Amino acid sequence: MNINLSIDVIEKDNQTELIVTGEIDAFTAPLLKEKLLPATAKESEKIIVNLQDVAYMDSTGLGVFISALKSTKEHGSTLTLVNLQERVHRLFKITSLDSIIAIDTTVRGGE
Amino acid sequence: MEHFDFIEMKLPAKPEYVGVIRLSVSGIANRMGFTYEDIEDLKVAISEAMTNATTHAYEENEGGEVTIGFGVYADRLEVMVADHGGSFNLSDVKKQTGPYQQSESIENLREGGFGLFLIDALMDKVEIKSGYGVIVLMTKNLPTNEVGLDDDQISTTQ
Which parts pass through the membrane (chain B) (predicted)? Predict the structure, then answer.
């Protein structure tokens, strides 16, 4: 089945960038959680999740980012989502989660 | 009685099939003439219902099936998602369903609390029946204007 998710993790200094490609749903969300949560558990770590190549996401993805946000509060790290496609960004707006999760819209759609 | 086509699918109650049902609804909605935006809304709403059904099946520790029914009408698409494997009768289900009461609070920050919220936000009408399993019945209306947004679809008498 060609419905999948791949995640590249780039670590440097106190920054971890996750480059996410594919679809985030009930099947693939556990993989995102597995890659994202350990980074949030590092004190002072700056985590950037690049969602440029995520064409589909549902509430299972929102759940992962809520878990990650909770973990950053616990460990003193930060989480920022960048390059969201309009459809994905819309879910954060509908649920009002964009008011508590940092979303950098200035680079949305940029390369 | 209002005419409609009915499509029924049964899938294992497993998360790996959520993407399959997403492709199915995309194909049906595209055939009906829904816009790109509406198709994306439908994909999320149906995925949420299927995810709920697979979670429910997992919690009940039964390897069951999810039954999905598509009612294709001239002016709307009705989708039913039932988390017990049995077939269902469209009119019987509709008689038993009531309006969905939104009671989830966003402030609670619950990791799994947004599924029904999104279904409600993205569909035009949502009804939920629980009892023998859970049945979600949701409706998306086709745009009422017959003239599309593209200028070249307007017919003229010139």
Answer: none
- Does residue A24 belong to any structural domain of this protein? yes
Query: Which of A58, A64, A100 is the closest to B47 by Cβ?
Result: A58
Domain coverage including residue B35: 5-143
Range of the domain at A66: 5-104
pLDDT at A109 exceeding the cut of 50: no
**Quick check: is B150 in a domain?**
no
- Residue in chain B closest to A96 (alpha carbons) equals B106
Q: How confident is the model at residue B149 (pLDDT cuts 50, 70, 90)?
A: low
pLDDT, mean of residues A32-58: 96
Q: How far is B111 from chain A (nearest CA, A)?
A: 4
Contacts of A87 in chain B (CB under 8 A): 40
The CA distance from A34 to B110, in Å, is: 19
CATH code of the domain containing A88:
3.30.750.24
**What letter does residue B152 receive in the DSSP assignment?**
G
B50 falls within a domain: yes
- The 10s digit of each residue's pLDDT in A15-41 is 999 999 999 999 999 999 999 999 999
Structure tokens at A62: 């929102």
The pLDDT of residue B91: 64
Domain of residue B92, CATH code: 3.30.565.10
Task: Give pLDDT tens digits for A75-95.
Answer: 999 999 999 999 999 999 998
Is A31 within the bounds of a domain?
yes
Q: Is residue B117 within 8 Å of B49, Cβ to Cβ?
A: no
Answer yes or no: is A41 within a domain: yes
